Amino acid sequence: MIYLGKKVMSIAIVGDGVRCFKCGRQAAVRVRYARMNLCRDHFAEYVEMRVARVAERHNMFDGIRKLIIALSGGKDSTSLAHIIMRHRDAFRIKEIYGLHLDLGIDGFSEESSHVVRKVCRELNLKCFVLPLRDLIGYSLPELIRISRRPPCSLCGMLKRYLINVVSVELDADAVALGHHMDDLLVFALKDFLVQGNFRMIKLSPVTLGIKGVMAAKLRILHETCEDDIILYANIRGIEYVRSPCPYKYVDNFKAVIREMLDKLEASSPGFKISLMRRLIKVADVKAEGEVIRCKYCGMPSSSGTCSFCKFTERSLGKPLGYDVRSRVRDLIRSLS
Ligand SMILES: [Zn+2]
Ligand SMILES: [Zn+2]
């Protein structure tokens, strides 16, 4: 039985007698955007092949010897880890590490760390699980209470900072992120509609790094839709965290954009992929803009103090970037 979890737009279950385009056996799904019927195995191979082709088209792995895969434990990042490990030799990556931040959310974080460890073990992937409380002295729920900042924006800022710190301390060339096409499109369109931001920088398949300051970011799933990932994870039997983050909330604006994109995809299959390709042509790809090093911790900032040092100074009374960097260094050493 194929579990798709929600109403799907880009793929549809097919009935008896429909044949797989590749092998002629009974097909499982119709990939609407590719106008192809595929059996389970060939669908999974198709997803892997498309991801590899996108990576190749954007020269994503050129010169990448040491790679970090940011793992939340959700279906996107765990599927991404599986796909990268399958293509590891073709991509010619020498060292690959999994990285997970344990946010200290009761129940949810234990489950997430457990899944990440298990997935990494299965993939024979060296894994760094960093507990936020060991690094800063507080869990995410405690930081939310102290700072009264919206959970998702605080969590996003902490993750971006700490993932970047690890990538710099490990001297990694790039960090692979699990964001898929649907999330990227919704994020970029909201940013455009609400902020008037044309740069759409987080949409670009590659954000270049700066040696010693920040690693490159690779959005390898940027042409892979959520439906494909759900079915892929299901076919390959990939474990992932099923329960939603307790801080997750419905952003109505994003929900409307998502619905609109889904409707357009349903009426003209392939719409999202061509929209993505058009948008990244106008996106301000590659560069993060001018980078000034934070005066406290040396990590990138826009104004001389990074958002992590600003946040910890305001909420905890002291900019903690420098201390956190040395703690990350110690943790990496003890886990290596
Ligand atoms: Zn087949
Ligand atoms: Zn700083």
Explained architecture:
This protein has one domain: Rossmann fold. Helix 6 (about 150-170) crosses helix 12. It is of the alpha/beta class and about 325 residues long. The protein has helices at about 40-55, 75-90, 110-125, 130-135, 140-145, 150-170, 180-195, 225-235, 250-265, 270-280, 305-315, 320-335; strands spanning about 10-15, 30, 35-40, 65-70, 95-100, 125-130, 175, 205, 215-220, 290-295, 300. It is built from 12 helices and 11 strands. The strands form 3 sheets. The chain has a 6-stranded mixed beta sheet with strand order 6-5-4-7-9-8, sandwiched between helices. The mean pLDDT is about 90. Helices cover about 50% and strands about 10% of the residues. One zinc ion binds near residues 22, 25, 41 and 42.
Q: Brief overview, please?
A:
The chain is built from 12 helices and 11 strands. It has 336 residues and is of the alpha/beta class.
Topology:
Blueprint: E1 11-13, E2 29-31, E3 36-38, H1 40-57, E4 66-70, H2 75-91, E5 95-102, H3 108-123, E6 126-131, H4 132-136, H5 140-147, H6 151-169, E7 174-177, H7 181-195, E8 206-207, E9 216-219, H8 226-236, H9 252-267, H10 271-282, E10 292-293, E11 300-301, H11 307-316, H12 321-335
Parallel strand pairs: 4-5, 4-7, 5-6, 7-9
Antiparallel strand pairs: 1-2, 2-3, 8-9, 10-11
Helix pairs in contact: 1-8, 2-3, 2-8, 6-12, 7-9
The structure holds zinc ion (ZN) (2 copies).
One zinc ion is lined by residues 20, 22-23, 25, 38-39, 41-42.
What ligands does this structure carry?
Answer: zinc ion
Radius of gyration: 20 Å
Tell me, briefly, the overall form: globular
The share of residues in helices is 40-55%
CATH superfamily: HUPs
Query: Which strand order spans the largest sheet, edge to edge or round the barrel?
Result: 6-5-4-7-9-8
Computed structural class: alpha/beta
Count of DSSP E strands? 11
Using the coordinates shown, work out and report the CATH topology. Rossmann fold
Domains, number: 1
Mean pLDDT: 91
Distance between the termini: 41 Å
